[in-house]
Specification:
about 0% strand; about 325 residues; flat; mainly alpha; two-stranded antiparallel ribbon
């Protein structure tokens, strides 16, 4: 009789027998489905709110940009007419030019000034650092309406503080908010004073992350304060600078309250920004043109943001 060879392993005493493969897979699939439903239930409120207050208004605004609607009645489809009207309107390009000039007056000074002040406020030998940080950030948390009224008094042609100082020094009386040459610089000064605290918060977080050994090595190499600032500090906070440039570009492109409260876009539309130009269409119930204007601004700001991020991206990326 032939010998039979068995390949079956006998389990040792006390060993735990493995569960059947099909049963274990079924338990895992049930558990995975249960966890998936729990996760979906947890994020369902956010998804509903996002769909109701973000996705649906965005789709509706896109449809509105191709329609002629004044707040009542049915939408009348007009295709690309709203976009072609805006691209051929001198007021649209004038508002973009005003916004671009405001960007040049605000963002570079705010960015470099934020990094410079943050570098000063992180020095170990500086006294009263906490008090100085509070003073610099305080305008950012001050209500905008109150500060706008204060600056209206400061920039007043006849009784303003600036013209009184200029008169005491023998200088000319300037129409800060009533002349086309000075309206945008006056608003830019107000915005710089009001919002530079936000730039300082971002730059402080970035500068404090620079290792002290880097500055010690720079001092050993004989670099002065300016050389250290431009060759060490600025390159090492490039990511924070890029982030702030994107955020500030978005803010300037949507600027509305500051020129509205101080000049109403005047004189002669010299301070009408893109946000204020958009408001003019909405206040006139020309909602289709206003929606088209919004999407043109979105595309423009997106392109500018991509260019800024591309330029400031570090080589290691």
């Amino acid at each position: 009789m032939a010998n039979l060879t068995w390949n079956t392993r006998v389990p040792e005493a006390g060993a735990r027998l493995p569960a059947p493969r099909g049963r274990r897979t079924g338990v895992r699939s049930v558990r995975a489905r249960r966890e998936g439903w729990w996760g979906l239930g947890l994020i369902a409120p956010f998804l509903l709110l996002f769909a109701a207050f973000t996705a649906y208004p965005l789709v509706y605004a896109l449809e509105l940009s191709f329609s002629n609607w004044h707040g009542a009645g049915a939408l009348r489809w007009v295709g690309w007419s709203n976009y072609s009207y805006l691209l051929g309107d001198p007021g649209f390009w004038s508002s973009l030019g005003n916004t671009g000039l405001m960007w040049l007056l605000i963002v570079p000074a705010q960015t470099l000034g934020g990094v410079a002040v943050a570098s000063l406020l992180t020095r170990s030998r500086l006294r009263f650092k906490k008090a100085l940080r509070t003073v610099v950030v305080l305008p950012y948390v001050t209500p905008l309406a109150a500060m706008a009224q204060a600056f209206l008094l400061i920039f007043d042609d006849q009784f303003g503080l600036l013209n009184r100082i200029l008169g005491a020094l023998g200088g000319p009386q300037i129409g800060w908010l009533t002349t086309t040459a000075w309206a945008k610089p006056a608003i830019a000064l107000f915005i710089l004073w009001k919002t530079s605290g936000y730039a300082l918060i971002i730059m402080l977080a970035a500068v404090q992350g620079i290792p002290p050994e880097v500055y010690e090595a720079s001092a050993l190499d004989g670099a002065g304060p300016l050389r250290t600032f431009f060759s060490v500090t600025l390159p090492l906070v490039r990511r924070a600078v890029g982030f702030f440039l994107v955020i500030s570009t978005l803010g300037v492109s949507q600027m509305f309250l500051e020129p509205f409260m101080m000049t109403k876009g005047g004189p002669y539309n010299s301070s009408t920004t893109s946000g204020l130009y958009l408001y003019q269409h909405i206040s006139a119930s020309d909602l289709g043109t206003g929606a088209a204007n919004s999407f043109l601004l979105v595309v423009l700001v997106l392109l500018l943001s991509l260019v800024a991020v591309r330029v400031l991206r570090s080589r290691e990326d």
